[in-house]
Specification:
alpha/beta; 5-stranded mixed beta sheet; 5 strands; 7% strand
């Protein structure tokens, strides 16, 4: 009997979602964002030919480089090294210590670093066949724009799945359907399971579809499915916050604006927070789910790894959900058992 009631509620959720334009937008927005990101990211990550040159290399070589791209002429090798060290992929050209050759400086995260160095070398050697050119890389790094975009899209998918569930709960309040559910044998546990099932399946589908569009075959989709199933617990908490505090769709939109801001902003901030201060965010379930996706898309980050962050996400989400159920039950007047 319990399974039939859960399945019936799930089908109602699916039907309501297909009829409500707001819920449909919530579900498919991350996929549309992934398509847009796939189209825009290649141009954002492409190498633009710009150079930083020490004035000491001479006007002739500076003019040659100007035929390849924009040239920033700077005073001294220290100024050129400082310019190359910035995050916008600009190679530098200086005289070597003996003043008889040239040194090409690359930061190391240029998408076409070797090809770019060869191009600069060919230009420098055009009239100086005996010159010595040294290609130096300051550090080995890579652009992580696509990976972190995928992390944010996966988190957005979880958010939208939870918010869609919250909107369905608000719709039940507005239509008085929740009063009808209160006089049925439906228990609070069954109601929670039915709503969680919709949020989990919706967010998992959207996250995997969006990741397929953006990342292709470069990630482990088995682990992504596990991460989505675990992270959906956070989405359920967010959906219950929306459904529990909002009595109509206008109030729900206001709650979503507040919740989504902290949900996405706080984890992004942690990217720039030193490791020794990360413990300030340990009490937040969205922090741990962000770390789980970060370990999956970016690579091993932090001491606990992918499985550790998944485990903590489940534990912290369960604590929040357990604290919210009594309030939700009192508002909906459903039985515990």
């Amino acid at each position: 009997m319990g399974f039939k009631q859960i399945y019936s509620l799930f089908r109602q959720d699916l039907t309501n979602a297909m009829r409500d334009n707001i819920i449909l937008y919530m579900i498919f927005a991350p996929i549309l964002l992934a398509v847009g990101a796939r189209l825009l990211l290649p141009s954002l990550e492409a190498t633009k030919l710009r150079f930083a040159a020490d004035v000491a290399i001479g006007q002739v070589l500076i003019d040659d480089l100007a035929q390849l791209g924009d040239v920033e002429v700077l005073e001294g090798s220290a100024a050129v090294q400082e310019r190359v060290g910035r995050s916008d992929d600009v190679p530098g050209i200086i005289l070597d210590e003996n003043g008889t050759g040239y040194t090409v400086l690359l930061e190391g995260n240029e998408p076409e670093g070797e090809d770019l160095a060869n191009l600069v070398m060919a230009t420098l050697l055009r009239d100086e066949a005996a010159a010595t050119v040294l290609h130096e890389q300051f550090r080995e790094t890579r652009s992580l724009l696509k990976e972190y975009t995928a992390v944010i899209l996966a988190m957005t998918a979880v958010l939208m799945g939870g918010m869609a569930t919250g909107f369905i709960m608000v719709h039940e309040k507005e239509s008085q359907a929740i009063r009808a559910l209160a006089v049925t044998p439906l228990t609070m546990g069954q109601y929670t399971l039915a709503r969680s099932t919709f949020a989990i399946l919706t967010s998992s589908f959207v996250a995997i579809a969006g990741s397929a569009v953006l990342m292709g075959t470069s990630i482990n989709y088995g682990l992504l499915l596990i991460a989505c199933l675990i992270a959906s617990g956070v989405g359920v908490v967010l959906g219950y916050i929306t459904g529990g505090f909002a009595n109509n769709q206008f109030e729900a939109m206001a709650v979503i604006k507040i919740v989504s801001f902290f949900y996405l902003t706080v984890p992004i901030i942690t990217i720039f927070v030193p490791a020794r201060w990360q413990f300030f965010f340990y009490w937040l379930p969205n922090y741990w789910m962000f770390k789980a996706f970060e370990n999956l898309f970016v690579g091993q980050i932090g001491p606990v790894g992918f499985w550790g962050t998944c485990a903590v996400t489940v534990a912290v989400s369960a604590i929040y959900l357990a604290g919210m159920l009594p309030r939700l039950r009192s508002k909906m007047r459903l039985r515990y058992t």
